[in-house]
Each structure stands twice: as structure tokens, then as C-alpha cells.
From TrEMBL:
Database matches in InterPro entries: Aldolase_TIM, OxRdtase_FMN_N, Oye-like
GO cellular component: cytosol
Homology family: Belongs to the NADH:flavin oxidoreductase/NADH oxidase family.
Name of the protein described by the UniProt record: N-ethylmaleimide reductase
Swiss-Prot/TrEMBL cofactor(s): FMN
Annotated source species: uncultured Nocardioides sp
């Protein structure tokens, strides 16, 4: 069995190790315009030794935005900003994927000119998101009740994903990752409690999974299946979305995705968000359902990652908080050099502090 420090092929990309950088919201894009900037470039370049850097969630359209100061990938200025970052990551020897994000109902009317965010259904729900407070700092606010996307809006939504994919390629990314996890739009369609539709996108599991699969096909056709990964979190409660039949939903989606020749399937496990530890039975079932590369994530440490790699249940692990605090994480894990602790106070928004000032091992 390979170690975490051996290469892996993820579709069109070969990674030198299996220690990936998980997608991480940091809310430091330049506003107005949600444009990636030089500070973000420095942050990503510092982490270029990851097998693969997966970018923070990057909204595919203004409609897909739900938090202050997150970057987008729909405007020319955003593509130009990302190009500077991907060039610099490549020059530093790295590889980087763009995470394509539509938050759906995890949003606030202040991002949408006073209009409610969109979702599968107009069901009231309880959750919070982050807007700029009067002091300029991130402030948590309640998410409003969304409006249901109209059936006639779905082609336009698919076109937004396609356009974002073309932009990601143009911006020099190696891959894209579709965000199908954590209670955002595609998960809102998949989960029965947030999806009360009575059309072809609601009701049966097959119907609820339709949007996620159509988005996958739209994104793959805009580039190539071997340039596309997808992240799911079918089990657990995230952002006010949970699926009582999450295991079944996840395995259904995995089986449907299995024949599509994608770069990877990325499973985010519930315990990073305070949920229970996932059991190996589900991991084994997922492996049975999906033969391609599986990336595991969610509160992983090196021992858990290596155990699951040894058992053949994952092919790589993505690390979030450890990568925030340790820009040279693969080297630190391989050499058992110890880790810097991360400071949650500086995760979201702000400048260099808690972002680009974590030291590499001396
Ligand atoms: C967050 O900003 O808290 C966040 C964003 C994306 C995720 C999960 C959490 O997938």
C-alpha cells in the first residue's frame, strides 16, 4: 500500500504526494468585485507543496455568493486575478484546483440587492452566514427563507457552471472541484428536508440527485471529465441541511458518478463540523460504489489518513485547519516535525495575520 508521501494520479494531474490542501473559506478577496489578490497569491504559493491545492469556495455567479469577501470566477477581473495565483503556484512547483461554489440558501439578501437567495424550495430553515458588520468586521447573521429556483432557471444555472469552468481553465487551474457538500445548493437539492419540489428535480432520490449530476456533466463537457472532481458530504448536518437517508444518497451519487471518468470523488466526513465520526462500513461501501480516486477529509490527522489509505478506503487525504497553520504541511507530516496550532479568530477576513504569517519549519 502507498504511503501519504507517494504520487497519485487524479485524472489529468499527477500529484507528488497524497497530502492535499482542503478548500478553505478565508474571506480576503478584494471588494468590490470579489477579486483574488496578491495577498491570496502569497498564501497559496506558501502552500504549493500540497499534492494538490484546492482553492477556497469560489462563487460561479453573483447569485452563488453567501459570505463577505469570498472570491468569484465569473468576471474578467476575477479570471485575471486567479491567473496570477495559478501561475505563481505552478512556478513554485504546485498544482491547484478551483472549487466551484454556489451557496444556494446559505446566503443573505444583502448580497443580492435585497432579494432572497435561491434554493431547491422556499422552506424556512435555521442557519447563519457571515456579512460585513458596521465595524467592517465579519458578523454572523440569520439566513433568510430562500425562494425556489424555477424549473426554467435550471438551464441558466447549468450555463453558469459551464462558464465558470471555462473561466477556471482560462485562469490556469489544473482541475475544478464541484462543491456538492456542506448544505450548499447541490446538497440542498439532494437532501429530502430541503428539497420539497414536485418536478423532475424533487421527490425521489433519483430526482433529487439530478441537479448534482447535470452540473457534473455540464462542467465535464465544458472541459474534460478528467479535469473534474466533486466534493460531497452526504452524512451529517451542515448549514441547516441534513439528509436522514444520507448514506443511501451518497452511495447513489457515487454509483452514478463512477462511470463518468472523473478525476476524483472527495468525501467530507461529518466530524470536522462537530458531527459523529464516520464508520468504516460507509467508507467501504463508498469504495465499492466508486472505483476511481477517493479523497477523504474531515478532521484527519496523519494516522487516520494512513490507516484509511492502508485499508484501501481512500487514495489521498485533504487537510484543512492543519494547512491553515502549516504552509509546509507535507514535509512536516513526513518528517514528524510537529505542527503549528491554528487560530480560529483569524480564519475569516482580515489581512496577513493568521493568513500568511504562519511559519514554515525552520
Ligand atoms: C464556511 O465558510 O464556514 C464554509 C464554507 C464552505 C464549506 C464549509 C464551511 O464547505
Amino acid at each position: 500500500m502507498p504511503t501519504l508521501f507517494e504520487p497519485l494520479t487524479l485524472g489529468a494531474v499527477t500529484t507528488p504526494n497524497r497530502v492535499l490542501m482542503a478548500p478553505l473559506t478565508r474571506m480576503r478577496a478584494t471588494v468590490p468585485g470579489d477579486v483574488p489578490n496578491e495577498l491570496m497569491q502569497e498564501y497559496y504559493v506558501q502552500r504549493a507543496s500540497a499534492g494538490l491545492v484546492i482553492s477556497e469556495g469560489t462563487q460561479i455567479s453573483p447569485e452563488g455568493k453567501g459570505y463577505m469577501d469570498t472570491p468569484g470566477i465569473y468576471s474578467d477581473a476575477q479570471v485575471t486575478g486567479w491567473r496570477t495565483i495559478t501561475d505563481a503556484v505552478h512556478a513554485a512547483g504546485g498544482r491547484i484546483a478551483a472549487q466551484l461554489w454556489h451557496v444556494g440558501r446559505v446566503s443573505h439578501e444583502s448580497f443580492h440587492g435585497g432579494a432572497p437567495p435561491v434554493s431547491a424550495s422556499a422552506a424556512p430553515y435555521r442557519n447563519r452566514t457571515t456579512v460585513r458588520g458596521e465595524d467592517g468586521r465579519p458578523t454572523r447573521v440569520a439566513c433568510p427563507t430562500p425562494r425556489a429556483l424555477g424549473l426554467e432557471e435550471i438551464p441558466r444555472l447549468l450555463e453558469d457552471y459551464r462558464r465558470a469552468t471555462v473561466n477556471a481553465r482560462e485562469a490556469g487551474f489544473d482541475l475544478v472541484e464541484i462543491h456538492g457538500a456542506h448544505g450548499y445548493l447541490l446538497h440542498q437539492f439532494l437532501a429530502a428536508d430541503s428539497n420539497r419540489r414536485e418536478d423532475a428535480y424533487g421527490g425521489s432520490l433519483e430526482n433529487r440527485a439530478r441537479l448534482m449530476l447535470e452540473v457534473t456533466d455540464a462542467v465535464a463537457s465544458a472541459w474534460s471529465p478528467d479535469r473534474v472532481g466533486i466534493r460531497i458530504s452526504p452524512i451529517g448536518s451542515f448549514n441547516g441541511t441534513e439528509d436522514p437517508e444520507g448514506a443511501e444518497s451518497g452511495l447513489y451519487v457515487a454509483r452514478e458518478l463512477a462511470g463518468r471518468g472523473l478525476a476524483f470523488l472527495h468525501l467530507s466526513e461529518p466530524d470536522w463540523a462537530g458531527g459523529p465520526q464516520l464508520d468504516d462500513a460507509f467508507r467501504r461501501d463508498l469504495r465499492g460504489a466508486y472505483r476511481g480516486p477517493i479523497v477523504g477529509a474531515g478532521n484527519y490527522d496523519v494516522d487516520k489518513a494512513q490507516r484509511l489509505l492502508d485499508a484501501g478506503m481512500i487514495d489521498a487525504a485533504a487537510f484543512g485547519r492543519a494547512f491553515i497553520a502549516n504552509p509546509d504541511l507535507p514535509r512536516r507530516l513526513e518528517g514528524d516535525l510537529g505542527l503549528n496550532a491554528s487560530d480560529p479568530e483569524t480564519f475569516y477576513g482580515g489581512g496577513e495575520a493568521g493568513y500568511t504569517d504562519y511559519p514554515a519549519y525552520a
